[in-house]
Amino acid sequence: MRKYLAIKPPQRSSTDSQYIPNQRLLIMTPSSQPLEVLIIGAGIAGLSAAIALGKQGHDVVILEKSAFLKETGAAVHLPPNCTALLRWMGIEPVDFGGTLLHEEWYLVHRVELHNHLKQRALETATLHTRCTVTEVNLEGACPSVTLADGRTFKADLLLGADGLHSQVRQSIAPGSPSPYAVGKSCFRWLLPTDKLKQDASTVGFVQDTGVFIEWAADDRRLVAYPCSDSKILNLCAFVPLNEVHADDESGSWQTAGDKTTIVKAFSKFSPGVQHIIASADRDLKVWDLYDMEALPTWTRGHAALLGDAAHPFQPYMGQGAAMAIEDAVSISTLLPYGSTPCDLPMRLKMYQIARRPRVEFVLHYTRMNGRDEKDAAGDRISAAEMVKVMNICFSHNEIEHSKNLLATHHTNDGDR
């Protein structure tokens, strides 16, 4: 059993408290005009981009395929590098039940995070739901999309935040690699912490608050971490795909899982672990884990990808949501008010320069931490190395990083 007590993050940066509700950061000149921005996808990446670009004074429209009738999901990590950016956007994790794992490192319920992002985005952006994109046109200086109902939306800037199976991806990078299943399924469910306190075999697991616990053997693992102010545990059981019933297999968060699959998969674990497994109820969800080879490019002309559309993450480092939010903030930082449509191709290339090396670094260690015992790909990352990697992740400030890149570009090229 691994217990992860937290790694001390860096001190909060000056960007943490810059947000003033309902106020945009504008530097007005007589010729300044906001960019017209069209975002495909209203997940964490898309909503974060809408907030950040709205904060810069741009006009944002979001198109979302779903109707948001039944949001789902479990817990999500908000590490310090992400928490600072959320505060810059006016979002405080403790306001929606964020559990403090350690200084500036929170665990929150994904639905609550999404709801707060949506609420904040709608202060400045327009959201259209039930939008099925049938065509993406990136030719010329005004990208557009056509919907199944015949409507067409045009903008100066098109952002593909449409997730793992992105439609925008194929338009930006034709012939690019598709996501592939890695051979594992993840079963997720929520469990009230009080239930574990009532059983002698599990009470020891919840004596300390804000602790991430993992039980692993061979090619499977169970992880538990708190959310909703430590009142709820998020459980994730990783099981080989060949042990999962065909009806369970899915790339969707909405698919119901078969409890008998995980009961059998963890039948040789300790009584405490088996008790936790037995707690899974009708809310049990399952989806397959995916990875993707690096894309040749994230940008094309006036369009760019961000979040899972550009770089899907497996859930082994708790940085997937943070990387999506960093992407969004990087784009907005590189496009301050006064940026023009003519600036977009170069600024989007700068976005890729800013983000790609960091994303590839985090992806590398995410994959390493996902390795099983005796994995043919090599050893899993050690606890000591994990501390070093997490400190590198935590210390990054994407606002300052992208600002410095933009300032260098201004100095070298005399850009507006």
TrEMBL record:
A matching Pfam family: DAO
InterPro entries: FAD-bd, FAD-dep_Monooxygenase_BioMet, FAD-dep_OxRdtase, FAD/NAD-bd_sf
Key word Flavoprotein present: yes
Keyword Transmembrane among record annotations: no
Single annotated GO MF: monooxygenase activity
The organism's place on the tree of life at top rank: Eukaryota
Residue ranges of domain FAD dependent oxidoreductase in the record: 37-70
UniProt cross-references to SUPFAM superfamilies, sorted A to Z: FAD-linked reductases, C-terminal domain, FAD/NAD(P)-binding domain
Span of domain FAD-binding: 128-362
The entry's keywords: FAD, Flavoprotein, Monooxygenase, Oxidoreductase
UniProt record similarity statement: Belongs to the paxM FAD-dependent monooxygenase family.
Protein name: FAD-binding domain-containing protein
